[in-house]
Amino acid sequence: MKRWTARAAMALAVAAGAAGVVQTAAPQTATAATTATPPGSVRSPLWTAPDPATVTAPPSYRLTLQGQYQRTDYYCMPASASMSLSTFGVKVKQAKLARAMRTTTTGTRDVNAIPVLRSYVKSLGYKYTAVPGLTGRPKALMKRVAYDVGMLHRAPNIDVWMEMLPWNKGEIYGTRVGHIMVVYGYDQKKGTITVFDPWKPTGGTHTLSAATLADTLQDDGSIHYISRI
Fold first, then answer.
1. Residues 6+ apart with CB under 8 A from 218
2. CA distance 148 to 115
3. For the purposes of burial, counting CB atoms within 10 Å of the CB of 198, is it exposed (0-12), middle (13-18) or buried (19 or more)?
4. Which neighbouring-strand residues pair with 19?
């Protein structure tokens, strides 16, 4: 398989505060990538969501999902958003979402993406929230996933560092290469989570341990958690 290196622009950092995590373009051939600076800790309403700790979800569940690969190198957010919205019965093309989310060749910011996602599901009684603080916390991540997938039967998006995904080991150069996928299955007994990665060269459906996935999460807005209004 061809190895991929990340362009420097892919690892752009988010300004401190509630600006949101940068979802950068998928990697292309280049020489190096810069290291992003973790965003600040200031929160906005886009980062406030209910805690699913008291909810008892099924031990395992997997949604029926039509996978999509991103149409351009920098459409990971629009592609994942399109798949997530499809679990509400909402069909919208990646290009339309990209325009609304102000996607550029360096990717899409959560602060622009979340309001667009909310606009499609508000009338259905739902909302999306970028929930931070799940990095390295597999149990907390599993609770969020189990609620969305097992209870609501919806597929949330998840922000990761692309080079840290197991299927990209040795294939991606650079650090803090921002990427986003969609989560659509889990098994609490096995401790696994199933995702669809829209980056075609190495993506598709992958099942990995919640612990492994939690270690790949970006520092802020780790999951685009879905909840009822």
1. 21, 135, 159, 160, 161, 178
2. 18
3. buried
4. none
Confidence of residue 50 (pLDDT cuts 50, 70, 90): low
Tokens of 61: 């569940």
Structure tokens at 11: 């690892």
Cα distances (angstroms) measured from residue 219 to each of 56, 91, 133: 27, 30, 7
- pLDDT for the residue numbered 29: 32
**pLDDT higher than threshold 80 for residue 95:** yes
Q: What is the 3-state secondary structure (H, E, C) of the chain?
A: CCCEECCHHHHCCCCCCCCCCEECCCCCCCCCCCCCCCCCCCCCHHHCCCCHHHCCCCCEEECCCCCCCCCCCCCHHHHHHHHHHHCCCCCCCHHHHHHHCCCECCEEEHHHHHHHHHHHHHHHCEEEEEECCCCCCHHHHHHHHHHHHHHCCCCCEEEEEHHHCHHHCCCEECCCCEEEEEEEEEECCCCEEEEEECCCCCCEEEEEEHHHHHHHECCCCCEEEEEEC
Compute the distance between CA of residue 210 and CA of residue 18 in angstroms, rounded to an integer.
27
Distance of CA 149 to the CA centre of its chain: 14
